[in-house]
From TrEMBL:
<feature type="transmembrane region" description="Helical">
    <location>
        <begin position="60"/>
        <end position="81"/>
    </location>
</feature>
<feature type="transmembrane region" description="Helical">
    <location>
        <begin position="136"/>
        <end position="157"/>
    </location>
</feature>
<feature type="transmembrane region" description="Helical">
    <location>
        <begin position="232"/>
        <end position="249"/>
    </location>
</feature>
<keyword id="KW-1133">Transmembrane helix</keyword>
<feature type="transmembrane region" description="Helical">
    <location>
        <begin position="93"/>
        <end position="115"/>
    </location>
</feature>
<protein>
    <recommendedName>
        <fullName>Acyltransferase 3 domain-containing protein</fullName>
    </recommendedName>
</protein>
<dbReference type="InterPro" id="IPR002656">
    <property type="entry name" value="Acyl_transf_3_dom"/>
</dbReference>
<feature type="transmembrane region" description="Helical">
    <location>
        <begin position="296"/>
        <end position="315"/>
    </location>
</feature>
<keyword id="KW-0812">Transmembrane</keyword>
<feature type="transmembrane region" description="Helical">
    <location>
        <begin position="364"/>
        <end position="385"/>
    </location>
</feature>
<feature type="transmembrane region" description="Helical">
    <location>
        <begin position="177"/>
        <end position="195"/>
    </location>
</feature>
<feature type="transmembrane region" description="Helical">
    <location>
        <begin position="207"/>
        <end position="226"/>
    </location>
</feature>
<dbReference type="Pfam" id="PF01757">
    <property type="entry name" value="Acyl_transf_3"/>
</dbReference>
<dbReference type="GO" id="GO:0016747">
    <property type="term" value="F:acyltransferase activity, transferring groups other than amino-acyl groups"/>
</dbReference>
<feature type="domain" description="Acyltransferase 3">
    <location>
        <begin position="55"/>
        <end position="378"/>
    </location>
</feature>
<feature type="transmembrane region" description="Helical">
    <location>
        <begin position="327"/>
        <end position="344"/>
    </location>
</feature>
<feature type="transmembrane region" description="Helical">
    <location>
        <begin position="261"/>
        <end position="284"/>
    </location>
</feature>
Length: 417
């Protein structure tokens, strides 16, 4: 281990040579003698292991999608959409912003698959890490922290409104389903190994068939007839499909074929199709099913799904500047905290629900500026709050505790867990 640390400080040319030696040492199948075997181990120890380069464009998209979530909630839950006069310019622009941001949580689900998919390691002796238990435990503790923490804050703001039973409800977030996204993600987490294997071992033709089925059956058909209990996208099933799509986008490098200008054009087109249908007021009934004018405004809508995938592709290709990379690296780990704080019941009631009804009758430019400004400030505040939470977790040695639990699980259940 000490030798590995020292290798990081070698000059660049020696590091390159070390990587080549590392690869050779890892692939020594049957050494001629014990001395050769020992030499191979020594080379593997000294040479630094090759690292995957982190995609900060994807991390930037995490933050950007949370900004979109705030736009959605400000206009929707905030009361702007319900109170703007139908047919007015304020109504049209508010809905255009809402639809443009509607793929936010889809993007977050797609990113889970894009980041979570890893093919089976090729190096001999490298076990496939099936589940990263420590990551889930850390996320679960973060969810509990914000759920209980927001309860305590509300107890100060409104004494007597929160009971012990209310606080206890947030201690068990999955059992009580207090955050639908985290509950659905928990299900996805435990089937990730199967999802990853499915993506890895499916050929191009089978993968293409799957994507066609998802689009035409689970997106297009279910948007109009709602027969598969996808709950408009608020479900484990839909999140699992997004995970698979995100993994497929990564495996087959969609970003090599769809460049940002084309992706942006597609996003604009999908937004206008959904918005145009809504503004037209077109609705109809077929086979005893009522199709409303806002039928394309849902997470499972084909237009919203395509838009979300295009955002993922843009994120995969985006190369932030050095300064922006430092900012993204600093803030991206707190992206999920934005959702946790914003949708916690008490924070929702205090800071979001019908708090922007007054904005619906104001000039359109004010609606735009207030919505964007409030969303930006809210996201920034939550990201900074999460830096404090992360510092507290480090102080309490939470990462070490979750890592120890993971090691214990692997020791008990096998290295391949």
């Amino acid at each position: 281990m000490e030798q590995r640390k020292q290798a990081k400080h070698l000059p660049d040319d020696q590091q390159v040579e070390g990587k080549l030696l590392w690869r050779k040492a890892r692939h020594v199948d049957e050494p001629a003698d014990g001395q050769t075997k020992a030499a191979g181990k020594a080379l593997a120890a000294v040479a630094p292991s090759p690292r995957r380069e982190r995609n900060y464009g994807i991390d930037f998209m995490r933050i950007f999608s949370m900004f979109y979530v705030l736009i959605l909630h400000t206009l929707g839950a905030g009361g702007v959409l319900d109170n703007a006069a139908a047919g007015s310019f304020q109504y049209a622009v508010s809905w255009l912003m809402e639809i443009g941001a509607y793929g936010a949580l889809n993007v977050f689900g797609l990113i889970s698959g894009y980041v979570g998919y890893r093919p089976t390691p090729k190096e001999p002796g490298q076990p496939r890490r099936v589940l990263k238990i420590s990551s889930y435990l850390s996320l679960w503790l973060e969810v509990v922290f914000y759920g209980v923490g927001c309860c305590l804050v509300y107890m100060v703001i409104a004494p007597g409104k929160v009971t012990g039973a209310d606080v206890l409800r947030w201690v068990f977030p999955v059992s009580n389903g207090v955050y639908w996204f985290f509950t659905a993600y928990t299900g996805v987490f435990f089937v990730m190994p199967l999802l990853n294997l499915a993506v890895e071992h499916c050929d191009r033709r089978t993968t293409a068939v799957f994507l066609i089925v998802v689009f035409f059956v689970f997106s297009l058909f279910d948007t109009f007839f709602t027969r598969f209990d996808l709950e408009g996208g608020y479900s484990f099933t839909w999140l699992a499909m997004l995970y698979l799509i995100g993994a497929i986008v990564k495996k087959y490098r969609f970003s090599d074929y769809v460049k940002p200008p084309l992706a942006l054009l597609g996003i604009v087109l999908m937004t206008l199709v959904s918005w145009g249908w809504l503004m037209s007021g077109f609705s109809f009934s077929v086979y005893d099913t009522d199709v409303a004018k806002d039928v394309l405004v849902s997470y499972t809508s084909p237009t919203i799904l395509v838009m979300s995938v295009l955002y993922l592709i843009i994120g995969a290709q985006f190369k932030p500047s050095k300064t922006l990379t430092k900012i993204v690296k600093f803030l991206a780990p707190g992206a999920f905290a934005v959702y946790l704080i914003n949708t916690q019941d008490y924070m929702w009631n205090v800071g979001m629900s019908d708090r922007f009804v007054w904005l619906a009758s104001r000039p359109t430019i004010l609606i735009i500026l207030v919505t964007l400004g409030f969303s930006l400030v809210y996201v920034a505040a939550c990201l900074l709050i999460d830096k404090a939470r992360a510092w507290l977790f480090r102080l309490l040695r939470v990462p070490q505790a979750t890592a120890a639990l993971e090691r214990g699980c692997r020791k008990s259940l096998g290295r391949g867990l």
